[in-house]
Amino acid sequence: MRSSFTLRYALLSLVLAIFAYCYGLDSRFAPKNGDEYPYMHIVRMTADSGHWLPLQSQMDGIKNTKPPLIFWQGIASTYWASDWTLFNLRWPSVLYTALTSFFLFLAVRRFSGKTHTGLLAGLVWLSFFATYRYGRPFLTDPPEVFWISLPFFALLYWGKCAFESKLFFPVLAGLCFGLALFAKSFAYIVPATVALGLYFWYWRDWSIKKVLTLDLYKLLMIGILALGVFSLWFALDPQPEAVWKEFVLGENAGKFAARSSNYLLDLVRGGDSIWMLLLTTLTNAGLFSFVLLSTLIQAWRERRFLSAQEVLLFLLIGAFLLVFSLPSQRSGRYLLPVMPAFAAVIALHWERLPLWGFRIALILQFVVLAVLTYLGANLEFSKFAVDSVAWTYSYAHWILMGAALIVTVLGLARPQQCKAFALMSCFLLYCALTSSLSPLEGQLGRYSAQTITQVKDKDIWIPCDYRAKDEEYGLLLPGAHLHGYLAKDAGNVGELIGTYPVVAVHSPLGVKPEICESCQIVGQRMEMRARHSDEEIKLMLQGQIGEHLFVTEYLISTPVSNPELLNVKDVCR
Known about the structure:
Layout: H1 7-22, H2 36-49, H3 69-77, H4 86-112, H5 115-127, H6 129-134, H7 141-158, H8 160-164, H9 168-183, H10 189-203, H11 208-236, H12 240-252, H13 263-268, H14 274-283, H15 289-301, H16 308-324, H17 339-349, H18 356-381, E1 385-386, E2 389-390, H19 395-413, H20 418-436, H21 449-455, E3 459-464, H22 470-476, E4 481-486, H23 493-497, E5 502-508, E6 520-528, H24 534-541, H25 545-549, E7 550-557
Parallel strand pairs: 3-4
Antiparallel strand pairs: 1-2, 5-7, 6-7
Helix pairs in contact: 1-5, 1-20, 2-3, 3-4, 4-5, 4-7, 5-17, 7-9, 9-11, 10-11, 10-16, 11-12, 15-17, 15-18, 16-17, 18-19, 18-20, 19-20
């Protein structure tokens, strides 16, 4: 294996990737999308009902927001919500991500004839920040990406046998696409079948006649079978009319409505333009965005010499880009199913790629790691403490930060190892992100067992800045009945303790809130703030990080008694 990516680097990168995806899997601060909270809420409410369907929710307009497969997955992995942890909710997502990477490795190894190229494809896909962000939390993306990708991996792996298959492959593809639709949306059948149609068209030497004669029935079979699997939702759900109204019309058809001025203007300008779709698709690669850009430039220059498999990969990418440019709501997240194809292209061109893309990745990694090191040192030496618990890191954290910085520097200094070290540094950086907030995962950021016992079965009002944010607080205060108020009011201590019987309030670090004589502080912990003013950001840049990045959250019991509060609309809903 005479290349810059030796077997030793491959195995080391694989170990780092596994560790990065498993480390901090139960962290509240793991990179994620806010949809995780509503999905958790639907799982918990549906599990409490004791039935798989209909889906249950207390949120207005958010119940049949996604097909039931993801929610059934959450019900099963948490044993009907009896073992309610982020780890149990998320580990199936990591399993899906691992399987996607594994089958990508098999497909690329088969058609390239090189094991290290297959390993590269799987590892490069795992190094994309979008894969890390959406491939670990409790979201619909991991099963969607896996089930959509599997038929295309099969075509790349089996080649002629799959293309010429009259029954086995169409049935396999139909079932896989059906499960993808059952996890995400029936709309994905359009780009999936368009991509398959282009695959068959290319296989038939661009002969429309041959495709119509030999392959059209296969595409129809795949589409009908996939939609048949999805339609099981209507057949099994006791309230199919609600599914039609909320999911089909609201969640999907609504994405074609003009979002600002009109459809054509939205297409070419603004945050939902076709240009923004292209940019966000590129940035799905995260720190490897410039590596992906250099790969696309090189592929364009060598377009006359691309292999058949590379052409197929680009046809898959092009089909999804074309189809998802049509809705008025355009997002790079919709293109997550084609990111494995991008990773495969990078792996195929790896040895011939210029170093500038990898050097930019290493520079960005070094900057982020340096900032995290500075922030961590500032917080630890500032001696911030809550309830006698100080912000401290273990020795392992500083060893991790030092090793990550050394790898990035060596990658910049040694051209021969530049590419391999840039890949490994991605996984080290993801570990550093998690480790940097590790103190908040311990006693510092959690309520004591005594506090949890004291407020069990009580009504508590908590700050809410996102729908179903109380699901996160449910992990901090299990057994309590949670209600939300606007998070922007969390600092108005006097007003809050005069309104709610038991309420969580925020106060600057080291500043104990002024409370009434009959009020009692039940518990306290440190919490990271979500929104900051321009002045606060400026002060943080000057070194006053802890004072403005974090607050102390106090849980206060008051003499207020107002049963009518339970009838007031919950802000978290």
